[in-house]
Amino acid sequence: MEEKFFCGKQALIVGGTGGIGREISLSLAESGADLCIHGAHGGEKCDSLLNEISARCGKSPDVIIQNLLEIPFSELESTELFERAKRTDILCLCFGPFVQKPLHETLIEDWQRVALYDYALSGALLSAALPGMMERRWGRILLLGGTGTSVRREFASNAAYAGAKSALNVLLDSTAAFYADYGITCNMILPGFVDTEYQDTRLKESLAAKMPLKSMICPKSIAEKALFLMKNADINGAAVRVDRGWSALKSL
Are 184 and 175 in contact (CB under 8 A)? Predict the structure, then answer.
């Protein structure tokens, strides 16, 4: 039986109904947290997750179904998602649209999307959550970076997306440095290519070929590392690569 490490803690998982977020939701539920799970769409996938959590843990999470891309960014502050962020003890930011285009084909709407939803959204939700965490003198924040975005580097086909994900390093270091005395930690996972339902078979084969061991990473493996970071109060400001030592140069 999983130790109920987060019993009594409120967790908000943004992008928590699918992919990596789904596994993080399951892991937090098994560790005793009371969940509020955000997803862009409801339906069978969401229902399956809720049923699995109920079967494993005997309780039902709160759910926010909201496609953030359909709401003007300036209006997001008045949504239920932001209200929940103000009350949460654990904030996991797993949402972020992917854009894959070379720079000369990247459109103005692509730049706007990655800047707002891969960087500014995480920052805005983090800012909303911090005052409550400071008052309670406890908090856990988990950011999800991009493959290879731990340092400044060149990207041939997704520079806009990778630039936004690279900027999360500033949020990471700033939060860790200035809020540690409140019992708040902020860490980030930078996954390699992860096997999720968001890729078709052809793309999965292509990505697997670029990875060490020629296979993609299981989402559960990412969730295990996320849970470890959130449980350990001594780890703060870490950007943890979970990519088997993936190298952009070797992937060419």
Answer: yes
47 — pLDDT class (breaks 50, 70, 90): very high
Q: Look up tokens 């020629």; give the residue.
A: 214
User: How far is residue 194's CA from residue 147's CA, in Å, rounded to a whole number?
Assistant: 10
Give the chain's count of helices (H) and strands (E). Answer: 8, 7
Within 10 angstroms of residue 65's Cβ, the number of other Cβ atoms is 13
- Helix, strand, coil percentages in the chain from 3-state DSSP, rounded to 5: 50, 15, 35
Q: Pick the closest to residue 222 from 146, 123, 131, 169 (CA basis).
A: 146
The pTM of the whole model exceeds 0.85: yes
Measured CA to CA, the distance from residue 95 to residue 117 in angstroms comes to 8
Under 8 Å between Cβ of 165 and 98: no
pLDDT of 219 above 90: yes
- Give the count of beta carbons closer than 10 Å to the beta carbon of residue 92: 29
Beta strands in 66-210 (DSSP E): 90-93, 139-144, 184-191
> Distances in Å between the alpha carbon of 232 and those of 12, 63, 183, 226, 240?
18, 27, 11, 10, 14
Is 19 within 8 Å of 197 (Cβ atoms)? yes
Task: Give the C-alpha separation, 179 to 15, whole Å.
Answer: 25
Contact 85, 128 (CB under 8 A): yes
What is the C-alpha separation between 22 and 91, in angstroms, rounded?
A: 14
* Res 1: pLDDT: 42
